[in-house]
Design a protein that fits this description.
The chain is an alpha+beta fold and 267 residues long. It has two domains: 105 residues, Aminopeptidase, CATH 3.40.630; 141 residues, 3-Layer(aba) Sandwich (Aminopeptidase), CATH 3.40.630.30. It contains eight helices and twelve strands. It has a twelve-stranded mixed β-sheet with strand order 1-2-3-4-5-12-6-11-10-9-8-7, with helices on both faces. α5 packs antiparallel against α6.
Length: 267
């Protein structure tokens, strides 16, 4: 049976998601931060004959995420995604999305596989030069300067300035994300952000440095400050990456690969 979830399902769905909490960082964060009654968020669950969870589908705005630790009714979930008027993106652990794709119903205009990594402890010494860089925690007033930096970098062309601004405001106001940055003469020149923060973990994103200020350890300094604060709060920093050079930097900080994650845009 597949049905829509409500507040009464909160405890059981969280118990289902927590064994792979890093892969479920978005779903857990969205449940904690937005619950089951918002018009921009919906959750469905597949249940076995005993009423136990088999799979979960989240729709958050235009995005959908599927999670299942084993076999599930992938064809039915694919039909639900395809027929939903707002969903344009499909995401999830690669092994889960492979089953969804094998159902043969979804067609994509773009697909990308990334690594998911987590940090359980930091490997950077406080004596390293990055500790001398002035890293600041951002407030709402700093968002336009952070967006300006991201808009100047090709890798961050996936959203408009308006969408980036709205997402950052939402994260900071809901405390589902935070931002750290380095400034120079009134401009943000390096930054690292989080989103999908929950009781257990946080997704690090938006790590960027202005092209004219690279190779100075600025992004590393932002990452160190950000991850230290998360770890001190008992939260596990997680991130996605697909650039081998970036992966080497993240591993040097203490991140370890957990597996792969699929991002796909529906045709």
């Amino acid at each position: 049976m597949i049905r829509k979830l409500s507040e009464s399902d909160r405890r059981r769905v969280m118990e289902f998601l927590l064994p792979e909490k890093e892969f479920n960082i978005f779903i857990i964060g969205d449940i904690e931060n937005h619950g089951f009654s918002e018009d921009f968020q919906e959750l469905w669950g597949e249940f076995d004959d005993n009423g136990d969870f088999i799979a979960v589908l989240l729709r958050y705005m235009r995005n959908s995420i599927v999670y299942a630790p084993g076999e599930y009714r992938a064809g039915e979930f694919a039909r639900m995604i395809l027929n939903h008027p707002e969903i344009t993106t499909v995401m999830g652990k690669t092994t889960v999305i492979d089953k969804l794709n094998a159902a043969g119903r979804l067609e994509y205009s773009k697909a990308r596989t990334t690594y998911l990594a987590r940090m359980q402890k930091m490997d950077v010494s406080p004596a390293e030069p990055s500790g001398q860089i002035d890293v600041q925690a951002a407030s709402l007033d700093d968002i336009p300067l952070i967006v300006e930096l991201h808009n100047s970098i090709d890798e961050f062309d996936y959203d408009s300035a308006e969408e980036k601004t709205a997402a950052l405001i939402r994260d900071l106001e809901c405390k589902s994300g935070r931002a750290y940055f380095v400034a120079d003469r009134g401009r943000v020149i390096s930054t690292a952000l989080t989103t999908a923060e929950n009781s257990f973990s946080a997704l690090v994103r938006g790590v960027a440095t202005d092209t004219s200020h690279r190779n100075r350890g600025l992004a590393t300094a932002c990452m160190v400050a950000l991850c230290k604060d998360l770890l001190n709060e008992g939260k596990t920093p997680c991130l996605f990456y697909d650039n081998p050079a970036a992966g080497a930097i993240y591993r040097r900080l203490g991140f370890q690969d957990l597996g792969t994650w699929q991002f796909s845009m529906l045709r």
